[in-house]
Design brief:
It is built from 18 helices and 40 strands. The protein is an alpha+beta fold. The strands form nine sheets. A nine-stranded antiparallel beta sheet has the order 14-13-10-11-12-15-23-21-20. It starts with a strand and ends with a strand.
């Protein structure tokens, strides 16, 4: 067994590998760029080596710097995590020449499966179902449109060396095929240094289901069930679960056996994942094989009890798998939610900045429910524009799917994050979505259910009642605290704390009254029996847990004008609490009107202007491309919402812009 390994990665996956290595008694070496000098993975490792400036192509993608770090520290093996150099055969080959073990598959398998065009040919020869498409190279935009039309729309345009949603576009007509080819080629060159593109048939109403493999160097290969990865945005996974609510035992077995056949065809060793597209009739088609650890591997670990990182290390050290296919059992259900630094209220645009507050829910197992949070940040960490926007992976495991989903909903509501835009509200709302809870999924779920983007969930009657009770209690507790301030007129403050209050929420007004004895509050609402409520909240806390007649509710709390901003289960509302007299006066107040920005094109996220497609004085049409902005390695095409004339363009290609900075103005 190795005595020291180097992790050629950063963030949560570096921390994840370090945890297992530590449990195995193996020392670890971290590498870091200037941007990650104070990162969590650097602090966790036994040693750390600086490898360059923030851009990945000057640090984490520099194979020679990784090898130099191995020599400097005496690391005997390298775990690449995912992304960066994890699927680069040349890196594996370079390590081998230096006598350093690669904790992953051999060069032959990486080369064969890492290229999507080659892998599909090998899969077909191994008897694996494949999607119709054009596997040859594509010359230009016109050639792309011709091929797409021959295959039949819709088609998927993909980078051969792609992954993580980069270099991928769906095209429904010739125009989209031409633009999709151009954008995918550009993203592929920027992200992977390989701009080869291929096109295949896009299967409508598809599910994305993948099989986890582990294989050793002694001819043993085992599949560890499947993961449902259909909840995606722009081909990037957002929520995963294991097992899939769609597969039956027969289909699972067929997919698993085909995956093992593919692994055997390339003498695969280590952990790997075979991804399939599955249609509504459970027909499945090979998509690609990822010759590395997947981001979503924790859900498989939770339902099988297998530590995939440990098995990767043991396989790389020459050990045999300690189990056979017959030993693999799927126990319970696991769900993973990816916490991204992206703003769901701004169409999920990337967000960067410092985590001024980062308080994950408590990890561990209680009453049959397990909570796990894989992360590489802590409070005060900086979310950089140079790397992937994923902040953490929150996982829950329970005996049944709905129990795991409900546990996830509660855990998300207890997850406190401030300082950046993040997708917690969307994830929290998703856990309540009827279609998700029923397991009626497809890769188009987000686009179909949120065609205009995500907005806060409107509060229903139960939510309004629950938030009204919470607001009354928050104001009551704050009032009692104020009554204890030295020098205050106690009798007046005490009186205000115990008088009737008017709660204004979602256009409604609810009058309530609170009595308290021995930490139990009796809340009286019109036409209802008094409710017994307890809470752990103290003034200043950002999370309040209420027990309302025996039902526990975790609600995020933020002081707001004359009340509170309350958030739970995707609902985000401002609640005001007044005395009866102030409520009368408040009804007479005018609401502030938001400024008119309809004549401006604003930068939707912090990013780099890749190109400006129009000039001052041009007349543009609805849907016409205006500019391309790159953020976190993804190119975002900004299009005209309506017909107009460009009056001013204060920026140029190459400029770095902040969110809401003006890109261009239009004549009114």
């Amino acid at each position: 067994m190795f005595s020291k390994i180097l992790i050629a990665n950063r963030g949560e996956i570096a921390c994840r590998v370090i945890k297992t290595a530590r449990a195995m008694g193996i020392k670890t070496v971290a590498v870091y760029s200037d941007a990650d000098r104070n990162a969590v993975h650097v602090e966790m490792a036994d040693e750390a080596v600086h490898i360059g400036p923030p851009p990945a192509n000057q640090s984490y993608l520099m194979a020679d710097k990784i090898i130099a770090a191995c020599k400097e520290t005496g690391a005997e093996a390298v775990h690449p995590g995912y992304g960066f150099l994890s699927e680069r055969a040349s890196f594996c080959e370079a390590l081998e020449k230096e006598g350093i073990a690669f904790i992953g598959p051999k060069v032959k398998a990486i080369e064969a499966m890492g290229d999507k065009i080659t892998s599909k040919k090998i899969a077909a020869e191994a008897g694996v179902s494949t999607v119709p498409g054009h596997m040859g190279l594509i010359d230009d935009e016109a050639h792309a449109a011709k091929i797409a039309a021959e295959i039949g729309y819709p088609v998927m345009i993909k980078a051969s060396a792609g992954g993580g949603g980069k270099g991928m576009r769906i095209a429904w007509n010739d125009a989209e095929a031409r633009e999709g080819f151009s954008r995918s080629k550009s993203e592929a060159a920027s992200s992977f240094g390989d701009d080869r593109i291929f096109i295949e048939k896009f299967i409508e109403e598809p599910r994305h289901i993948e099989i986890q493999l582990i294989a050793d160097s002694h001819g043993n290969a085992v599949y560890l069930g499947e993961r449902e990865c259909s909840i995606q945005r722009r081909n990037q996974k957002v929520v995963e679960e294991a097992p899939s609510p769609f597969l039956d035992a027969e289909t699972r077995k067929a997919m698993g056996e085909q995956s093992v056949a593919l692994a055997n065809a390339v003498d695969y060793q280590s952990a790997g994942t075979v991804e399939f597209i599955v249609d509504k009739h459970r027909n499945f088609y090979f998509l690609e094989m990822n010759t590395r650890l997947q981001v979503e591997h924790p859900v498989t670990e939770l339902i099988t009890g297998v530590d995939l990182v440990e098995q990767m290390i043991r396989v790389a050290a020459g050990e045999k798998l300690p189990f056979t296919q017959a030993d693999v059992k799927l126990n319970g259900w696991a769900v993973e939610s990816r916490l991204y630094a992206e703003d769901p209220y701004r169409n999920f645009l990337p967000s960067i900045g410092r985590l001024t507050r980062y308080r994950p829910p408590q990890e561990g197992t209680s009453d049959g429910i397990t909570i796990r949070n894989d992360t590489g940040v802590t409070e005060g960490s900086e979310i950089s524009m140079f790397y992937d926007p994923m902040v953490a992976k929150l996982c829950t495991h329970a005996p049944t799917r709905l129990e795991a989903v409900d546990a996830m909903a509660d855990a998300l509501d207890r997850f406190e994050v401030e300082g950046i835009g993040h997708n917690l509200p969307f994830l929290s709302a998703l856990m309540q979505h009827p279609r998700w809870r029923e397991g009626r999924l497809s890769t188009g779920f987000i686009a179909e259910e949120y065609p205009e983007g995500f907005a806060p969930v409107p509060p229903n009657d139960d939510t309004i009642k629950r938030f009204a009770i919470a607001a009354l209690l928050l104001s009551h507790i704050s009032g009692e605290r104020n009554a204890q301030i030295s020098g205050a007129r106690f009798s007046q403050a005490e009186k205000r704390a115990h008088e009737d209050k008017v709660v204004r929420i979602a256009g409604q007004e609810i009058t309530g009254h609170i009595d308290d004895t021995d930490d139990v509050y009796l809340v009286r609402l019109p036409g209802r029996e008094p409710l017994s409520v307890t809470t752990d909240w103290t003034p200043g806390a950002k999370l309040a847990v209420f027990d309302i007649d025996g039902v526990t509710n975790a609600i995020k709390v933020e002081p707001a004008d004359a009340g509170w901003r309350l958030r739970q289960l995707g609902v985000d509302v401002r609640v005001q609490v007044f005395s009866p007299r102030i409520a009368e006066l408040a009804r007479l107040m005018k609401e502030k009107v938001a400024p008119d920005t309809s004549s401006l094109l604003l930068c939707p996220m912090p990013g780099l202007i890749v190109s400006i497609a129009v000039n001052e004085g041009d007349e543009v049409q609805e849907g016409q491309t205006l500019a391309v902005v790159e953020a976190m390695k993804m190119e975002n095409v900004l299009k005209a919402e309506r017909k107009g004339v460009v009056s001013r363009i204060p920026v140029k290609a190459g400029d770095s812009l902040a969110v809401d900075e003006i890109i261009m103005e239009f004549a009114k």
